Amino acid sequence: MYTLGFEGTAHTLGVGIVDDQGNVLSNIILTYPATEGIHPREAANHHAANMSDTISRALREADTGVDDIDVIAFSQGPGLGPALRTVATAARAMSISLGVPLVGVNHCIAHLEIGRLVTDAEDPVLLYASGGNTQVIAFSRGRYRVFGETLDIGLGNMLDKFGRAHGIPFPAGPAIEQKAKKGSKLIELPYSVKGMDVSFSGILTAALNSDEAMEDICFSLQETTFAMLTEVTERALAHTRKSEVLLGGGVVRNKRLRDMASTMARERGAETYVPDGGLCVDNGAMIAWTGYLMYQAGMEITVENSHIKPNHRTDDVEILWRN
Ligand code: AMP
Ligand code: MG
């Protein structure tokens, strides 16, 4: 049994195919180059222009015909309206033309479920840090609960905004990571942990106004924001008494963030897991796998009820596929 999943919450168009044993048969990822930041309409146009070719590539790589697809899943939210709508339209069309069930998937939950599939993590606390999202999520009393999250912008978006102001091309995260390696002076930036939530816009303003050396600003940006996320993740671990940390989202490609989170976990006797490259960032395979789990739990939707959810909340979803 094969599930085809569409990802399209932001700048990435992803189409992935998984089987019912949890094998990822293909995972094609295409990213719209958001040099000036993500323009939602342009991201949607990028997805539309590349849709048919990306579906064909995913089928070819999985060595399956379109008639072998049994379930269609798509990222229903959260994300940018135009991008979500374009990808949802493709998913609906394919579901109707093949006569197969349709499932709408929460993007943040998909990051967690793919981690449970491809790593040894069973019941982790997810630290999810991407361009648009920053959340600490864990399963508790029948739901994926948000234990902490950004009150303003996603961490990746903050790094990208800082980069743009300094002529660093998008995505700025990797370049900031390289510069930070040459920095050593910790500049004081507003360490903003509010309860279990975090905020990045004040840090961005302070960093933009700093006239310290670029390397030291990058170093301090990383040290400050990564420490904030590590602190919140540690408190979520303590609160839930879980012993696994799962990392997801583009920002966790950063080695310093991985090191900080895994050092914290180790000191608490917990394990840290990171899915491999293409399964860690936004991708269609994670949507396909989560869609398959949801389908098995009877969570298919009709086309009439398949409207997109730009503000979809992680904790709105009833998790019928876990005990
Ligand atoms: P996503 O939204 O999950 O596709 O992730 C994209 C975000 O990850 C962008 O904001 C990038 O700047 C950020 N990113 C990618 N690589 C790194 C890195 N090595 N360090 C920090 N941020 C990164
Ligand atoms: Mg994501």
What does this structure look like?
This protein is α/β, with parallel strands linked by helices and 323 residues long. It has two domains: 145 residues, Nucleotidyltransferase, domain 5; 154 residues, Nucleotidyltransferase, domain 5, CATH 3.30.420.40. Helices cover 43% and strands 21% of the residues. It has a five-stranded mixed beta sheet with strand order 3-2-1-4-5, sandwiched between helices. A hairpin with a 2-residue loop joins strand 9 and strand 10. The chain is globular and about 60 Å long. The two termini are 23 Å apart. The model has no long low-confidence stretch (mean pLDDT 97). Bound molecules: adenosine monophosphate and magnesium ion. Magnesium ion (MG) binds next to helix 3.
Short description:
It is built from ten helices and twelve strands. The protein has 323 residues and is an alpha/beta fold.
Total domain modules = 2
- Note the main sheet: 5 strands, mixed
CATH C-level category of the largest domain: Alpha Beta
Low-confidence stretches: none
SS class:
alpha/beta
**Any idea what the radius of gyration is?**
19 Å
**For this structure, what is the CATH homologous superfamily of the largest domain?**
ATPase, nucleotide binding domain
**How many helical stretches?**
10
